[in-house]
Amino acid sequence: MIQVAKFLPPSYETNYNKLTGPTGPCVYPAFHVYIHSALYYVTDKGEDIKLAQVIYAGLYLCTLALVLASYRRAGAPPWLLVPLILSKRLHSIFLLRLFNDCWATFFFWLAVYGATRKRWSIMVLAWTLALNVKMTMLLPLPALGAILVQGAGTERAVFWGVVSAITTMGSAAPFMGTEEAPIYFRQAFDLGRQFMYKWTVNWMFIPEEAFLSKQFAYTFLAAHASILLAFLHYKWVRPSSGGLPHFVRKYLNYTAIEAVEQDKGSKRMTPQFVMDALLGSIVIGMMCARSLHYQFYSYLGWATPYIMWRSGAHLVRVVGACALQELAWLIYPQTEWGSISVVLLLALQVASSWQSMPTSYDPVALAKEEKKLQ
Q1: Own/partner pairs for 122-130, CB < 8 Å, 24+ apart?
Q2: Annotated pathway, please (predicted)?
Q3: Which residues does 48 contact at the CB level (< 8 Å), separation at least 6?
């Protein structure tokens, strides 16, 4: 609130270096500023905490409704509601801490729900709003791109990509002055941001010196890229292609794709497939993250029950994994064993995502199609 107060009249400050508060300058994209500017007026400059909690309670319920609607579209059983609604950490993030991640989570699940209904416009625009609240929403981008190209075709995918870019630039318009623009992008989308060791949830079991080293960051960047490429090649492009090279050649040569073939690829973007891909992309990114903070559970907590169920796990295993994860994320300050548990459970979910997704659709037909493009 202190930061956005400087953006509002009478100051009208648009230099991100000068939108400062007790935690330093603003480091989130423009839509974050607009949301909290609205909250600034509604909650009497942030003084009416009770009203803010009521607003966030409504946001929690709306997000839960989207999650349940998405689960239902994917055929998930009703008992998954239990681990979804009993999370103390999620309640804390939404109703006590009032993190901006709550808004990003809401828009992300609106994008997931749009994807389950093949409403590509809703998927892209909701994800764009989520990204413009918090940069964390770059994590599902690879899966979202694969879904959009296969579901909508190359031309429409490019169109919606341009719309997303224009929306992002448009939302940042007040901060796009000659001097302000570089500062805005450097702070709002800083991929090389240094994190403090004392706040990490996932890597407390390694020495601080190793945690802060560049080698540590580069290792996980390489691991993230490698796992994403494996999922893209073997899982996310398989509804329409024999692998990533085939997928690239096919959709670059989109004029040669027959309407029947495009329709076939679109039909394979089932609710289960799009949820598998989008939620899988989230947990891959979190497993390979240089540092996770407690508010990141807002992205993970809603996804874990579905991911574990989709792997074919028994009810006891699903609920047990959710309970263990909840306990690990409730530890404060974080301990070595707690952070080990966080990493192991994330690895389990990545493995579960891999296991749950089919590797091919009619491989004989796809092999013939690939030969035609060679």
Answers
A1: 123/147, 123/148, 124/148, 124/160, 124/161, 124/163, 124/164, 125/163, 125/164, 125/167, 127/164, 128/163, 128/164, 128/167, 128/168, 129/31, 129/167, 130/103, 130/104, 130/105, 130/106
A2: Protein modification; protein glycosylation
A3: 42
Residue with tokens 């240089």: 290
Cα separation of 8 and 31, whole Å?
A: 14
**Nearest CA among 78, 85, 70 for reference residue 122:** 70
Neighbours of 178 (CB within 10 A): 6
Contact 128, 167 (CB under 8 A): yes
> Would you say the C-alpha torsion 24, 338, 93, 111 has a positive or negative sign?
positive
pLDDT in tens, 103-140: 999 999 999 999 999 999 999 999 999 999 999 999 99
In 3D space, the residue among 63, 62, 7, 2 whose CA is nearest the CA of residue 34 turns out to be 7
Please measure the distance between the N-terminal and C-terminal CA atoms of the chain and give it in whole angstroms: 57
DSSP reduced 3-state for 162? helix
* CA contacts within 13 A on the Cβ side of 222: 6
- Per the document, the length of the chain is 374
DSSP letter for 374, please.
Answer: -
SS3 190: coil
